[in-house]
Q: What sequence folds into this?
């Protein structure tokens, strides 16, 4: 691969970054992914909690995240506590509907972050299906087949702050994006940071700017200027 090309594994790495970033920030904990990527023949939903979403557009693919019960509960509880929920009101079992709903919402945020980055960096548009979450027992494994052209499938392991493991499985069309010589990626900016910086600058100017209208000398100058203007107009 040259610096001017982006292939399947580069896109997978962006997805891994989105998973780590979203789950770490929303749960106020450290979520990391392994440095090794495993090549697999097909994607599967596995115990204890499996979530998947299909995307389509500039390229097609499938994202599956298989959480162990411990990993799901840890992320769920950290997320809810970070949102201000009292610990006494939280579920303790990964089979709870509340856990499934929260993990599905987090999956939605992960894909939203991923699609945003892909849309900016690769100048292509993709859309996602609503993530589906299934509680799976130890004896059940579900294969998820998609109509992909020359599919590439990968698995990456992730680790929570308490060392609980979960897996991302990813399948997509074999593809390659080639950067043209005159193409430049628009720099991303943080709107909240921009507003905050602007607010600080405005506040600083307000603090350092003298109260001109409160100065009697200035008021006199303004009045004199107004009188001169009226005289010139013959009023």
A:
């Amino acid at each position: 691969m040259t610096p001017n090309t982006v292939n399947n594994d580069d896109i997978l790495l962006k997805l891994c970054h989105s998973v780590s970033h979203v789950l770490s920030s929303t749960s106020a904990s450290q979520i990391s992914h392994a440095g090794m990527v495993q090549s697999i023949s097909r994607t599967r939903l596995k115990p204890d909690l499996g979530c998947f979403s299909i995307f389509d557009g500039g390229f097609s693919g499938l994202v599956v995240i298989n959480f162990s019960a411990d990993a799901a509960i840890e992320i769920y509880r950290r997320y809810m506590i970070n949102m201000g929920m009292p610990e006494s009101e939280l579920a303790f079992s990964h089979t709870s509907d509340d856990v499934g709903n929260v993990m599905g919402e987090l999956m939605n945020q992960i894909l939203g972050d991923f699609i945003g980055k892909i849309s900016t960096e690769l100048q292509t548009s993709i859309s996602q299906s609503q993530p589906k979450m299934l509680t799976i027992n130890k004896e059940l494994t579900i294969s998820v087949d998609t109509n992909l052209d020359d599919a590439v499938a990968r698995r990456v392991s992730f680790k929570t702050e308490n060392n609980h493991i979960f897996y991302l499985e990813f399948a997509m069309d074999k593809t390659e994006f080639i950067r043209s010589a005159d193409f430049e990626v628009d720099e991303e900016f943080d709107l909240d940071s921009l507003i905050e910086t602007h607010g600080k600058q405005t506040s600083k100017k307000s603090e350092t700017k003298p109260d001109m209208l409160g100065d009697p000398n200035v008021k006199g100058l303004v009045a004199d200027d107004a009188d001169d203007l009226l005289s010139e107009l013959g009023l």
Notes: The two ends are 79 Å apart (CA to CA). Residues 1 and 167 are 26 Å apart (CA to CA). The chain has five helices and twelve strands. The longest helix spans residues 97-121.
